[in-house]
Each structure stands twice: as C-alpha cells, then as structure tokens.
Amino acid sequence: MSSFNTKLDPDTPRVSVASDQAFEVLKRIFCASGCSENISRQIAEHLIDASLCGVESHGVMRTLQYVEQFKSGYMNPRGEPEFCERAPGVWEVDGHEGIGIPAMHLAYAQGMSKAEKTGISALAVRHVGHTGRHGAFADHAAQAGFLTICVGGGNRKIWRQVAPHGGAKAMLPTNPWCVGIPGGHRGPVVLDFATSKIAGGWIYAARSAGALLPENCVIDSDGRPTRKPEDYFLGGAILPSGEHKGYALALVGELIGEAMLGPATTECHWLLITMNAAHFRERQGVGAVAEEILAELRACPPAPGFDRVEIPGEREREHRQRTTGVLSIPASTWDQIQALSGSASDSRPPFVLTSKGNNNGE
C-alpha cells in the first residue's frame, strides 16, 4: 500500500511543508481576503487536516478556489453562521453566504446538543459556500457517540457537474452524502463520498498540479472519456459513481436540497440528522458488537491486487498519523498558494452577491 493516498499522477512533483508553516500562510491569506480571525483559523485548520488525511480534493488546494470566490463575490468573506429555531423543533444554520466550513462546525455541534437531550435532531444548513470535508465533522461526532447522516443538494441550474446515468451532459451537482457511526477499537466508521466517480475537487487539484485525472471518471463535451482536467471545464462532465446507484443518490439529494429545503443559494443546501446512539443501546455494547463486525471484515482474505480489506474512515486517520504533521503538496499548487500569500492584501472589490457561472468543487 502506498504511503500517500492520492488520485493524482504519482510522478507529480511535490514539496513537504510543515503543518504549522502551512497554517500561518493559509490563515494570513484568509484574513487578508476579509475573513475574521476566527473564521480564518477554522478554514486553515480544516484544510490542513484534510491534506494530512490524504484527501487532497478538500485540502490546502482549496485555498486557491476560496480566494477566487471571495474576490468574485460568490462567497461573502464576512458571512458568519447563525443558529436559529424556525418553528418548534425545526432548526437551521444560516451561513449568510459565507464559507460553509464554520457553518458545518456549528451545525454538528448544535445537532449533537439537541440529540443529547431528545435522542434525535434534524436541521437544515442554508446559504453557505463550500463546506469542506464532511468526514472530519462526522468522525468527531461519532467519537462522541452520535450517528450522523448528512446530504447536500440543490442549485443544479448553476452547478451542472455530473451526467445522469445514461446521459452525456452534466445535469446535477456532485450532491455528497456523509454517514458517521461509532465503531470499534480503531475508531468510528465514516462514509464520505460524492455521488460522482470523482469529487469535483480532484479536478481542481489535478489542474492546479498540472496532472492527469484517473481513467473512466470524466467525459469531454462530446461524451468521450478523457483524463484532461481542462476538458471538464470546457463543457465536460463527471460520470456518476456506481452508474445508476450514484445517479439515484444524487437525485434524492437534489430533491432534499431544493424541493424540500427551498431554492438553494451560494452552493447547495444540507440536511443533517443526528442520533444519540446511547438512546438505543449502551455505548459499551455498541462498541463491542461494532468491533466484532469490523474484525470479521478485516480478517477477510484480500482479493488479487489488494493488500487488505479496509474499513471506511480508517484510511484517513492512519494517513494523518503517518504524516506526523508534514503535508505533501504538489509543487505547482504550493507555489500558487505562496503567491497568494504575497498578494492577498491587494485591492479587493467589496462583497456583491452575483450569479455563479463556473463549476462547483465538491
């Protein structure tokens, strides 16, 4: 098994950057872009953790996209998330068109707080930009004893990224799903996936790194398979994961995000369901049986071409541990981020909410 998880070409030139050094660079960039000190810290910490976990599609590379979206007015750098009760038992986090990472922090915290008392809670997250790596939020909640189910969707008229099964044109967003549940001795089980064969962020990562995409994930504007990131931005599409299954999950996410939660602004809307596992079974019992199930799966003989059977969520935690706080970043990407660090204080237009016309990066 490779010591570094990536979907980019293994020969892509890389540099090693200490996480504390990266944190100072990223925080300075976001502060200069108009974000508060607290929001800048949350964004920088989240992106660095994603990179340490080997999830480059949602890691420090996103700095380039976020700064562009702040400058264009797509996201409001001064947007602060707000929690409110719209009706008895109906809760919502309003991101006020800001970046979605702080909004998701607040949503999961409030979801756990409500479920701690009532056993279950459901809340909407609206008016947010990109929400980061959901697996990080789900992992934290599961370690605290909560099952969480989060799905996003809506805004397909702006974010046409993924072709439906049987189609040759981008029609739907990537509409991710994330589920976290308390696990066994090695930690929670976390599913965090886009409903497309590859997250949009990997395409941004490949473009910024000057790398090719994996095979059979993207088609060009003529419906032909391609590995070139630019073909996607020139009218191409991502294919649905699992063919009809990914398409169906994306469609359900779109219905939840827009038909149920209302017209989406910025990127998409989210529904977060949080359940206190202890209300159904004592925590020790949950962990014991979970470990029994997971141990059986780990003991399964690996198929040809595989080293072992993995448990969802463990790869990211193991990757973070192996990195020992050092990020491996494509050299081209880090050069672009450092250039931003030197120019982030340049003149920036005031925030104006505008229509969005480029591809979403889930």
Describe the structure.
This protein has 362 residues and is α+β, with helices and mostly antiparallel strands. It has a domain at 82-313: Ribosomal Protein S8, Chain: A, domain 1. Helix content is 39%, strand content 20%. The protein is built from eleven helices and twelve strands. The protein has a seven-stranded mixed β-sheet with strand order 2-3-4-11-5-6-7, with helices on both faces. The chain has a three-stranded antiparallel β-sheet with strand order 9-8-10. Helix 2 packs across helix 10 and helix 4 (100-118) runs parallel beside helix 5 (134-143). It is globular and about 50 Å long. 49% of the residues are buried.
Mean pLDDT: 91
**What order do the helices and strands follow?**
EHHHEEHEHEEEHEEHEHEHHEH
Distance between the termini: 26 Å
CATH 4th-level superfamily of the domain at 82-313: Malate/L-lactate/L-sulpholactate dehydrogenase, NADPH binding domain
| Class inferred from helices and paired strands | alpha+beta
Task: Please give the CATH architecture of the domain at 82-313.
Answer: 2-Layer Sandwich
What proportion strand? Answer: 15-25%
Uncertain parts:
344-361
Which fold does the CATH topology of the domain at 82-313 refer to?
A: Ribosomal Protein S8, Chain: A, domain 1
Determine and state the CATH class of the domain at 82-313.
Alpha Beta
Secondary structure tally: strands: 12
Helix content: 25-40%
